[in-house]
Amino acid sequence: MSNALRFIRRTNDRRLPDGWVGGVMVGDIDKTYLDARFSSLRGLLAIPFEFAIDKRHVAGTVPLRRALRVGPDPQHPRLTPLYFVSGSPPGLRAVVERRMTLGGVQFDGITFRA
């Protein structure tokens, strides 16, 4: 493992076929998907103790991610690969994944800093 890779924890739940020519969506979690309040000490200290249901999405991000995943025709969904990155520690993975599930956002993997 290279030195840079020791500092990340990645999941990839979808293997794309060789020669994949479709798009891949990669988005940030902190402050662009979840309304993370780590600009104040109080907000920062609360993050590890919040349940998934306590976390709030940035307005409009859930329908946007769903639309990007499905594509323009819901009758023929394209299931665009959807990955997330986060500066949060991997200990928050379960809460973040649960929040996405509660919001109905399907995703294929998340990379956290270690």
Could you explain the architecture of this structure?
Helices cover 23% and strands 15% of the residues. The protein has 114 residues and is an alpha/beta fold. The protein has one domain (24-113). A 4-stranded mixed β-sheet has the order 1-4-3-2. Strand 3, helix 3 (93-102) and strand 4 (109-113) form a beta-alpha-beta unit. The radius of gyration is 15 Å and the shape is globular.
Helix content: 10-25%
Number of helices: 3
- Poorly predicted regions are none
Number of structurally distinct domains: 1
Query: What is the number of strand segments?
Result: 4
Work out the strand percent: 5-15%
Major sheet characteristics = 4 strands, mixed
How would you write the strand order of the largest sheet?
A: 1-4-3-2
Overall average pLDDT: 85
Query: How would you classify the helix and strand content by structural class?
Result: alpha/beta
Using only C-alpha atoms, the radius of gyration works out to 15 Å
Morphology call: globular
Our measurement of the CA-to-CA distance between the termini, rounded to an integer number of angstroms, reads 14 Å
Please write the string of helix (H) and strand (E) elements. EEHHEHE
